[in-house]
Amino acid sequence: MPMSREPIHILLTSFGPFPDVPVNRTQRLVEALGKLSDDRPDLILHTATLETVWDKAPAAVAALHARLSPRIAVHFGVAEDALGIELERAAYNFCDGSPDADGCMPDEGELMPGVGAQLQTRLALSDAIAALHRAGVTATISDDPGRYLCNAVYHRSLVEAARAPERTDALFVHVPAEPSVPGPGDVEILRGLRALIDWLAAEAHATA
């Protein structure tokens, strides 16, 4: 199949601070990743930081989808128990009662009434994992993004991707938190995330 000559638009989001995480590692990782498209005519990367707030983050994701129409939206968050890069396969239409960065609690239960209990990315995550392993990075597929704002953002992004008039995909990526969790440093994590972006761009071009 011939490669598309149009640049692929990819949205990358990080989170700001939240309780027990005063500095969110994803902010500097996404800032570094955003520079990848500086010399890539085939790729346009859009970056944004989401407030870790129940009544703002999912709405912000919906607005970014509407404004940018990305081919792929990739959202990054930290996980206390992650030992490497975790690619989340699914999001769930449920939230728990954990407080956000403003100390506010959500209404427990469905995130979006009338939407399926589970939504899954259409991306071939096993192939993505293989690309990360070739880059020498620890990476796994996860089926449990938690029920905090990571899951809420992913769920909303998958809903918006399904509604898009053109093919759109979404993915959530967890990386180890710091400094509370020993794990790979930024150099290794960025090597893996660059390999992931390369794989996503190639997949998007191939299916354009």
How many beta-strand runs?
A: 8
Low-confidence stretches: none
Q: Which bin fits the share of residues in helices?
A: 25-40%
Secondary-structure-derived class: alpha/beta
- Shape descriptor reads globular
- Main sheet strand line-up: 2-1-3-8-4-7
Give me the oligomer status. single chain
- pLDDT averaged over residues: 92
Number of helices: 5
User: Main β-sheet: number of strands, strand sense, barrel status?
Assistant: 6 strands, mixed
Straight-line N-to-C gap? 9 Å
H/E element string? EHEHEEEEHEHEH
The gyration radius over C-alpha positions equals: 16 Å
Give the amount of beta strand, in percent: 15-25%
Which properties best describe this structure?
about 210 residues, alpha/beta, six-stranded mixed sheet, two-stranded antiparallel sheet, 5 helices
Structure in words:
- The protein has 208 residues and is an alpha/beta fold.
- Helices cover 32% and strands 22% of the residues.
- Strands 2-1-3-8-4-7 form a 6-stranded mixed beta sheet, sandwiched between helices. A two-stranded antiparallel ribbon has the order 5-6.
- Helix 2 (57-68) runs parallel beside helix 4 (149-163) and helix 3 (125-134) packs across helix 5 (186-206).
- The N and C termini lie close together (9 Å).
- The mean pLDDT is 92.
